[in-house]
């Protein structure tokens, strides 16, 4: 028995040596690619192709998610050898945005916490950060208005998207909820936990719900107050030394937020892409129908349509549209040409690999 164990462990040691050698050879090749290619280090389309291929080739016992996590870190370390770059996100440390940065870029990036979504855009626009990660919609609460409004104005492009399951927790300096007089959180998080709060805290009269700039900021505030709790991520409880009073308190167990990666580079086709744009049309009967007709004509699927006030004239709207395919695909290029022709305002936000 002991001999069997020893034999198995020797085999594992031999495999680790091989892996070590292979990972370092991979890193050298990535460095060589880095020397040969021009422009940005991060190539979302290439990484998306790598993950698609690995998923097709993976027969377990490791799950697709585990393989994705392991290779995310390998690629992250390889990229950092080429050139470590900076990614701005809605901070402070412990936000879901930070989790989104790690999920997409791995640990080997300079993650730059920013005070607001506006600041994330500014950091990337000014070149302080190479990329930004911003929330764009939540499955329970819908669009993140500020992100949409800033996308309308920015010269930046969308270079990627990712989805993150959002598990909200109630946390405080102590677990005795009867001492709680106020709860801090981000308005989106309060909204995602609305029913839970009513059902579970109804006996606690006079609890004040106070909006914070982010849920990690809420945790920071609760860490300074015996009578306060916060709704935030488990990570935020760790970062700010709080105890978890309740976990998974979001009303919808599938609560998911979609994040966008913004940057200044256009992304080449990966083979599984999406294109985002924003348009306006005149305010007359049938105008929206006519505006979108080229999509059907060129067999392009629309995956999202969202209207927002234009902020120019009263009751004037802009339409955010996501379509399947890359702007370089022939049918998409033809459809975009007609859309541009029909619209009173047209802005392409970018083509990027599907999450
Ligand atoms: C090596 C490259 O640079 C980066 C690192 C990658 C990797 O480690 O596989 C893939 C794409 C790029 O983000 C490349 O462009 O191929």
UniProtKB/TrEMBL annotation:
The record marks 257 as: Essential for prephenate dehydratase activity. It is found in: Cytoplasm. Pathway: Amino-acid biosynthesis; L-phenylalanine biosynthesis; phenylpyruvate from prephenate: step 1/1; Metabolic intermediate biosynthesis; prephenate biosynthesis; prephenate from chorismate: step 1/1. Residues 1-86 form the Chorismate mutase domain. Residues 86-264 form the Prephenate dehydratase domain. GO terms for biological process: chorismate metabolic process; L-phenylalanine biosynthetic process. Keywords: Amino-acid biosynthesis, Aromatic amino acid biosynthesis, Coiled coil, Cytoplasm, Isomerase, Lyase, Multifunctional enzyme, Phenylalanine biosynthesis. Residues 5-32 form a coiled coil. It catalyses: chorismate = prephenate; prephenate + H(+) = 3-phenylpyruvate + CO2 + H2O. GO terms for molecular function: chorismate mutase activity; prephenate dehydratase activity. Its EC number is 4.2.1.51, 5.4.99.5. It holds the Pfam family CM_2. Residues 276-353 form the ACT domain. Its main location: cytoplasm. One of its GO terms (cellular component) is cytoplasm. Catalyzes the Claisen rearrangement of chorismate to prephenate and the decarboxylation/dehydration of prephenate to phenylpyruvate. This is Bifunctional chorismate mutase/prephenate dehydratase. The lineage of its organism: Bacteria, Pseudomonadati, Pseudomonadota, Betaproteobacteria, Nitrosomonadales.
């Amino acid at each position: 028995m002991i001999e069997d164990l020893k034999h198995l462990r020797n085999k594992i040691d031999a495999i680790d040596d091989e892996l070590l050698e292979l990972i370092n050879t991979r890193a050298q090749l990535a460095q060589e690619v880095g020397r040969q290619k021009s422009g940005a280090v991060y190539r979302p389309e290439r990484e998306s192709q790598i993950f698609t291929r690995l998923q097709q080739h993976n027969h377990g016992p490791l799950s697709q998610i585990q393989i994705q996590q392991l290779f995310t870190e390998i690629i992250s370390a390889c990229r950092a050898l080429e050139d470590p770059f900076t990614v701005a996100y809605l901070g402070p440390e412990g936000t879901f945005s930070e989790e989104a940065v790690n999920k997409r870029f791995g640990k080997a990036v300079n993650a730059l916490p920013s005070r607001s979504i506006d600041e994330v855009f500014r950091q990337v626009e000014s070149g302080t950060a190479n990329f930004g990660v911003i929330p764009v919609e939540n499955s329970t609460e819908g669009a993140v208005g500020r992100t949409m409004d800033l996308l309308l104005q920015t010269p930046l492009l969308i270079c990627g998207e990712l989805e993150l399951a959002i598990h909200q927790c109630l946390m405080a300096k102590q677990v005795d909820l009867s001492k709680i007089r106020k709860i801090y959180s981000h308005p989106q998080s309060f909204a995602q936990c609305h029913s839970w709060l009513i059902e579970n805290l109804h006996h606690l009269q006079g609890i004040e719900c106070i909006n914070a700039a982010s849920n990690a900021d809420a945790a920071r505030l609760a860490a300074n107050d015996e009578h306060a709790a916060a709704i935030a991520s488990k990570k935020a409880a760790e970062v700010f030394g709080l105890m978890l009073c309740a976990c998974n308190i979001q009303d919808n167990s599938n609560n998911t937020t979609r994040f966008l990666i913004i940057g200044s580079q256009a992304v080449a086709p990966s083979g599984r892409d999406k294109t985002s744009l924003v348009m306006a049309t005149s305010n007359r009967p049938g105008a929206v129908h006519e505006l979108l007709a080229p999509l059907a004509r060129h067999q392009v699927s629309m995956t999202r349509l969202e209207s927002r006030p234009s902020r120019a004239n009263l009751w004037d709207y802009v339409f955010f549209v996501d379509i399947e395919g890359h702007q370089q695909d022939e049918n998409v290029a033809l459809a975009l040409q007609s859309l541009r022709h029909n619209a009173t305002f047209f802005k392409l936000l970018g083509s990027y690999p599907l999450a």
